[in-house]
Design a protein that fits this description.
Blueprint (H helix, E strand, L loop, with lengths): L20 H15 L1 H9 L7 E2 L11 H19 L9 E2 L4 H9 L10 H25 L10 E2 L3 H16 L3 E11 L4 E3 L4 E16 L2 H10 L8 E7 L10 E4 L4 E7 L2 E6 L3 H8 L6 E6 L7 E3 L6 E6 L11 E4 L5 H9 L29 H11 L3 E14 L7 E10 L5 H10 L1 E3 L2 H12 L3 E2 L1 E2 L10 E3 L5 E2 L2 H13 L4 H4 L20 E3 L3 E2 L1 H6 L1 H6 L9 E7 L6 H13 L4 E7 L2 E2 L16 H7 L2 H10 L6 E2 L2 H23 L6 H4 L8 H22 L3 H30 L5 H21 L6 H8 L23 H26 L9 E7 L1 H9 L4 H5 L3 E6 L6 E6 L3 E2 L6 E2 L13 H12 L1
Parallel strand pairs: 1-24, 2-3, 7-10, 8-13, 17-25, 24-25, 26-27, 28-29
Antiparallel strand pairs: 4-5, 4-16, 6-7, 6-15, 8-14, 9-10, 9-11, 12-13, 16-18, 19-23, 20-21, 20-22, 28-30, 31-32
The structure holds zinc ion (3 copies).
The site of one zinc ion has 8 residues, from helix 29.
Length: about 900
């Protein structure tokens, strides 16, 4: 018996079924490097409309984690898809290099104790530390298949960047928006620095909760007695509540709400004042009932009343404030203008001193009675003891509440008025709100969130008392101790930083930074010293659009898009917009796309202690970067994104399906040269044109989804197309034609033409997501093509293949196919037939369905994968399918039953179609 296998056009390809991604991916990435792919792309796209996505710089401190992977892969999907849509879409990655965490790590380095290091030496160690992690993170990002200008990233510690940071500050100085003031800011006692709002996290903390009586002064009686006669001659106190006893030494006022009702209650021989609405609750909380109520009056009555500090020889002013609430406390609010932002505002309104007798060492001034020399939190018991001694402590207990903590060292922070540099929101707020309102936020709730933040945020405290950052180049007059920051001073420093780097501030003689002829505007003095504060690192990264977008020729200002996690509303989105509005009166971005955070399968944050951390390095090692990339495309990144073993296993499975589809398509194209063999559309078989019409719809959907950054829809669309349209139908019904027809027959070439167009198009469409696998496919596709799929563009005009009439017809044919398949399955189970090829199907239909089937009469055996199929007409609606064994004998080559052979299965003769095909093979 002849083995006809050699005469069949069986699929063949060297595209491996098993991807072995961990081992093979690095070669593709190395090839991109060697060919300078990112630069090549710039050349190829030169002159095209530009799309600028600006990279938010990760912090150069430690290895990348899964959150970085999600963020960078999303950015890569955006960039690559815009590039393949024909845009010139460069990607310039960046790193945030200054800041406290790096300092802390360098301080931990025991080999170089700080006492032996000058500030400049310490900064050099910080620079080296940051550079080390820029390098390692860069390698990891490249390993994820992310394409960018990795050899020329932006670093906030580069001299030119440092100069641009200072110049951005200079623009604020020019506009008169920068001032030095004593103002309460979040202060970390442990790190000895001011903290930004964004650097504070709320954690549960146990504080003392104390109720304290402030006696009414004689002067207070003079004012109050005529207004509230019942109080005349009585011993009167106001009752306040606080959880920070250490701020009592700094008390300068008691705030009352102008419109609340306050009441005076008899308690033993004296009278105690508090908000009447809170009296019952306070009595219960303290276990001390109030006696008879002898008077009520509005809060307004208490404005100007003078109280006495409970243990210092000074007054505490009765003031009014709208922020006083009835939620907690007594309605009489202890006010220390140096230790709270509301307190500060009230202090400014009433002309009180911004008093905070605490040094940067976190200790009270030595000369202060009761608490002198004590650390802040050590002062709590001392204050309580003194209040007790003076008979002014009404009640004390412990109180658990949410309290601000330092995001780095997790110590409780305090509000402390220290001299700091600020950017005033007064001159910026309206512009910032308007600019944020004009941005396209994705999702669009971002607009409200961002504008709301700008409406309420306090002035921006831009100074930090640290070493590793960009110095605020202010000069302090030695004669009158006033600090000066002028446009000329700032520009002078920027020039020096640009030539050296910002270390120069700590190393070069002062003259280098004093503008020629500069005199102290206050006293005319000419003897200065330099300030030692550095800029808030959020100002550094917030200036990136000036230092990068406005500077590099391949980019443009403003950016089309920023892409970061939702935490950046209070971070980078905010600081970037403020710097944009402060320097150019406009937001530095037209659009902002945000993503959620990666959590475990139970929705919990990943942490070492929970043991639920999935590291990108581990996934790459076990499954490959492509699996992470596909995972990013499969999830709804707008929300929290779940990741764990099961999710990874599902992703690996999805990857395998996609890979196998590509492999099968390639395996049918081994002898196909599109330039020579492509069949013109009008000569193609209807089923091939239908497959291309489906593909056209897919290509359209995918392109639209890329435009909307809706990667999840892309995955689903591609997956459905591959499984439903291709595997379950088109590829199945095409096998007979591809394998058994003459290699050069129009039937086979028609199928190859369709599969070639689909394979080529799918490779382009999936390339932004499966960037490495698509390269493997691309290299094996026939026909001349770009050296990398990423240099190519999305399929041009797939819409030309769209044929709605054909779609409709084939949707109906597929419905018939479903009914036939069910009948075949029943016949097989009843052992009437073997496989489908041994069957002869007869479909009885009526009306339009019968007409349609009649028209496709010749395609029906192919559609049903049977040896024969006939159509008959019936009067009734609906289909009737009859299955009988096919007549004739089985062709040993194509396994169809044909009537030209006598019944039987052991034939050596071929069917007529195979005879012709084998002729064709021999001819080839
Ligand atoms: Zn801290
Ligand atoms: Zn002076
Ligand atoms: Zn045959």
């Amino acid at each position: 018996m002849t083995d006809w296998k050699d005469t069949l056009n069986l699929p063949r390809t060297d595209f491996p079924m098993k991807a072995n991604l961990p081992a093979t991916e690095p070669a593709t990435i190395a090839r991109w490097d060697a060919m300078g792919l990112h630069a090549r792309l710039r050349d190829v796209r030169s002159g095209r409309p530009r799309f600028v996505m600006h990279d938010g710089p990760p912090y150069a401190n430690g290895e990348i984690h899964i959150g970085h992977a999600l963020n960078k892969i999303l950015k890569d999907l955006v960039i690559k898809s815009r590039s393949m849509a024909g845009f010139d879409a460069p990607y310039v990655p960046g790193w945030d290099c200054h800041g406290l965490p790096i300092e802390l790590n360098v301080e931990k380095d025991k080999h170089a104790p700080d006492k032996d290091r000058s500030p400049a030496e310490f900064r050099r160690a910080c620079r080296a530390f940051a550079a080390k992690f820029v390098d390692s993170q860069r390698e990891d990002f490249k390993r994820l298949g992310i394409l960018g200008d990795w050899d020329n990233p932006y670093l906030t510690m580069n001299p030119a960047y440092q100069a641009d940071i200072v110049r951005a500050l200079g623009r604020f100085v020019e506009r008169g928006l920068v001032y030095k003031g004593k103002k309460p800011v979040y202060w970390c006692l442990r790190d000895r620095t001011a903290l930004a709002e964004a650097e504070v996290e709320y954690e549960t903390h146990k504080s003392p909760s104390i109720y304290v009586e402030f006696p009414l002064a004689l002067a207070g009686h003079a004012l109050l007695d005529p207004r509230v006669p019942a109080l005349a001659g009585r011993d009167v106190t106001a009752l306040i509540w606080t959880t920070t006893p250490w701020t009592i030494p700094s008390n300068l006022a008691i705030a009352f709400h102008p419109d609340f009702e306050y009441a005076a209650y008899e308690v033993e021989s004296r009278v105690v004042i508090l908000a009447s609405a809170l009296a019952a609750r306070v009595a219960e909380a303290t276990g001390r009932p109030f006696g008879r109520q002898i008077a009520t009056f509005s809060g307004r009555t208490l404005e100007g009343a003078t109280f006495r500090h409970p243990f210092y020889d000074r007054d505490s002013a009765g003031v009014l404030a709208e922020y006083v609430t009835l939620d907690q406390g007594t309605g009489a609010v202890h006010t220390a203008p140096g230790h709270g932002s509301d307190d500060f505002a009230t202090g400014v309104r009433y002309g009180l001193e911004i008093y905070a007798p605490i040094g940067v060492n976190g200790r009270f001034s030595e000369e202060l009675p009761v608490v002198g020399g004590l650390k802040v939190f050590e002062a709590n018991p001392a204050v309580e003891a003194e209040l007790e001694k003076q008979g002014r402590l009404w009640h004390r207990s412990d109180f658990e509440h949410s309290y601000p903590h330092c995001w780095r060292c997790h110590s409780p922070v305090i509000f402390l008025a220290t001299p700091q540099w600020f950017i005033s929101m007064d001159g910026l707020r309206e512009d910032a709100v308007a600019a944020a309102g004009a941005v396209a936020w994705l999702p669009d709730w971002g607009r409200e969130r961002m504008t709301g933040m700008f409406m309420t945020r306090p002035d921006w405290c831009i100074s930090r008392q640290r070493a590793w950052g960009v110095p605020i180049p202010a000069l302090t007059c030695r004669a009158c101790n006033s600090s000066h920051l002028t446009p000329a001073i700032v520009e002078r420093a920027a020039t020096v930083f640009e030539q050296h780097n910002a270390d120069a501030w700590y190393e070069m003689p002062l003259e280098a930074f004093v503008p020629d002829g500069f005199r102290c505007p206050g006293c005319g003095g000419a003897d200065f010293e330099r300030d030692r504060d550095i800029l808030d690192v959020w100002f550094d990264s917030g200036s990136s659009h000036l230092a990068v977008l406005a500077k590099r020729a391949e980019l443009a200002w403003p950016a089309d898009l920023y892409v970061e996690g939702t935490d950046q509303y209070r971070g980078w989105f905010q600081s970037s917009l403020l710097v944009g509005v402060g320097t150019r009166r406009q937001a530095p971005y037209k659009g902002v796309l945000t993503h959620g955070f990666v959590v475990d399968l139970h929705g919990r944050k990943m942490s070492k202690s929970l043991g639920n951390v999935v590291s990108p390095q581990q996934v790459i090692k076990e499954s490959g970067a492509e699996v992470l990339r596909l995972w990013v495309a499969m999830v709804d990144y707008r929300d929290e994104v779940r990741l764990g073993k099961e999710v990874l296993a599902r992703t690996v499975e999805a990857y395998r399906k996609i890979r196998n589809t590509f492999r099968y398509l390639l395996s049918n194209l081994y002898d196909f040269d599109p330039a020579v063999h492509a069949v013109p559309k009008e000569q193609m078989l209807a089923v091939d044109r239908y497959a291309l019409s489906r593909y056209a719809t897919l290509a359209d959907d995918v392109r639209h989804a890329y435009e909307a950054f809706d990667f999840q829809t892309i995955f689903h669309a591609v997956n459905t197309f591959m499984t439903v349209d291709l595997s379950a139908f088109y590829l199945d019904v095409s096998k007979d034609r591809l394998y058994t027809f003459g290699p050069s027959s129009v039937e086979r070439r028609s199928a190859q033409t369709a599969q070639y167009i689909i394979a080529d198009g799918l490779t382009r469409l999936i390339a932004p997501i499966l960037s490495i696998t698509s390269e493997e496919v691309w290299a094996r596709l026939p026909g001349p093509r770009e050296e990398s799929v990423h240099l190519a563009v999305f399929p041009s005009d797939p819409g030309a293949w769209r044929d709605r009439a054909l779609d409709d017809e084939w949707q109906q044919l597929l419905a018939v196919r479903g009914a036939v398949n069910a009948a075949l399955e029943r016949a097989r189970q009843q052992k009437d037939i073997g496989n489908a090829l041994s069957a002869d199907v007869s479909v009885a239909a009526s009306g339009a369905t019968a007409d349609l089937l009649d028209r496709y009469r010749d395609d029906l055996p192919m559609l049903f994968i049977t040896s024969a199929a006939t159509v008959t007409r019936r009067a009734d609606e609906g289909l009737e399918v009859t299955v009988v064994p096919a007549a004739g004998g089985k062709c040993p080559r194509c396994w169809r039953f044909v009537t030209e052979l006598p019944p039987g299965v052991d034939h050596t003769d071929l069917c007529r179609r195979c005879e012709a095909a084998v002729e064709g093979v021999r001819a080839v």
